[in-house]
Amino acid sequence: MTGRDEYYNRAKQEGYRSRAAYKLQQLDEECGLLSQGDIVVDLGAAPGGWLQVAAQRVGASGKVVGVDLQNVRNLSEDEAGSGDGAAHVETVRGDMTEADTRERVQELVGEGGADTVLSDMAPNMSGEYDLDHARSVHLARQAFETALTVLPAGGDLAVKVFDGRDLDDLKADVDAEFEYVREVRPPASRDASSELYLVAKNRLTAPVRAGDEVVVEVSDEGNEGDGIARVEGYTLFVPGTSVGDRVRVRVDEVKPKFGFAEVVDRDPDE
Ligand SMILES: C[S@@+](CC[C@H](N)C(=O)[O-])C[C@H]1O[C@@H](n2cnc3c(N)ncnc32)[C@H](O)[C@@H]1O
Description:
By secondary structure, the chain is an alpha/beta fold. It has helices at 3-14, 20-31, 49-58, 77-80, 99-109, 129-150, 167-175; strands spanning 39-43, 63-68, 88-93, 116-119, 156-162, 178-184, 195-203, 213-221, 227-231, 234-238, 246-254, 258-265. It is built from 7 helices and 12 strands. The N and C termini lie far apart (73 Å).
């Protein structure tokens, strides 16, 4: 039996609308994308395999917003349920390359933002490798832009893209906005397929990035005795400094809620 038959048959037996459901299960198991109570956006949701997996994993306290050019049939209680009741699922029929669809998604997600943005969007295949790659990168960029509008600090993105020459640029742009990004090829993808998923963890909204140099005032002391400086409200731990110091630092590590920096000049105004 080929891999394709295995996942196709499993999907039929286990009540999933598509074999793609197993790709999301595998991405979640490898990268930890879905938790109880999460708000999840699922782009390119039809026929609804990912929607089922996401709904089951976020549970009754979670919410999933699915979007597709095609109509997505409503999930039944069984399809959206995980034992503790069904997740709240909303679907939008629309084109993610259009601003009004993206605005609708923002409205449905609400002010607090989403925990995770997923995209399994794929273009209609022309059979011409470069063209299909370029179209897939374009769709992945729509998902990335959406992630930047709906994810607060700490949110995650997993987006499908076909491998090719523009992948590295896309990956670098995503990397700049998250703590890290990985390329993941789930076993349920077909062997010959060029598809992969960029999984970006922990959205960064900090005003600084690793490598930046800034002059800061140390305003507090942390529990470990490190100095704490704030850059536009963002917390930087600066070892070896005390409250009142004014120093030039180089940012070493940026996490969603705080970062670490080292002193490069103790007298920056000289
Ligand atoms: C591989 S299928 C998704 C399968 C789905 N994840 C599942 O588990 O059932 C790709 C989907 O992307 C959708 N799509 C492609 N371009 C889109 C766009 N611009 N806006 C919204 N959806 C789009 C297609 O209509 C198609 O249903």
